[in-house]
Amino acid sequence: MGRPKKQEHEKRSETARFRLTLAEREYIRSQAAAAGMDESEYLRARALGHSVSPARSNRADPALVTELNRIGVNVNQLAAATHMGRDFTRFWQEVGAELRGIITKVVASGS
């Protein structure tokens, strides 16, 4: 199944050409890349008065990933032990407290 056809008023048939210095062109390239857009999208958005924000990074802090992985291993071990009839309530509470601490760090760093 192909892409749906655009309505006539949605088609971009007009072009706008203008000259830039090398420095201006590089600036536009860097701003577009920072926003996660191609140059045309970026210029169109800016020309039409839209604000353009830098794209959020999808890269997670490696130390945070390691810490969360370690907690996940502990959770799996506790779950397996609990399913075998062992009582590890105290450890579940410790893991929960540790997770709450990490979530607080993540929320604070994301602001």
Could you explain how this protein is built, in words?
1% of the residues are buried. The protein is an all-alpha fold and 111 residues long. The protein has helices at residues 22-35, 39-47, 62-83, 89-109. The protein has four helices and no strands. Helix 1 packs across helix 2 (39-47) and helix 3 runs antiparallel to helix 4. The two termini are 41 Å apart. It has two domains: 17-56, no CATH class; 62-109. Helices cover 59% and strands 0% of the residues. The mean pLDDT is 83. The longest helix is centred in the middle third of the chain and has 22 residues, at 62-83. The radius of gyration is 25 Å and the shape is elongated.
Q: Helix- and strand-based class? A: mainly alpha
Radius of gyration: 25 Å
Q: Strand content of the residues, in percent?
A: under 5%
- Strand tally is 0
Q: Roughly how much helix do the residues carry, as a percent range?
A: 55-70%
* Average residue-wise pLDDT: 83
Q: Topology as H/E string?
A: HHHH
Intertermini distance? 41 Å
Q: Count every helix, treating DSSP H or I runs of 4 or more residues as helices.
A: 4
pLDDT < 50 runs, ≥5 residues: none
Shape: elongated
Domain count: the total is 2
Q: What's the story with the biggest beta sheet?
A: none
Provide keyphrases for this structure.
single chain, 111 residues, mainly alpha, 2 domains, elongated
What is shown here, in short?
With 111 residues, the protein is an all-alpha fold. The chain has helices at residues 22-35, 39-47, 62-83, 89-109. The longest helix has 22 residues, at 62-83.
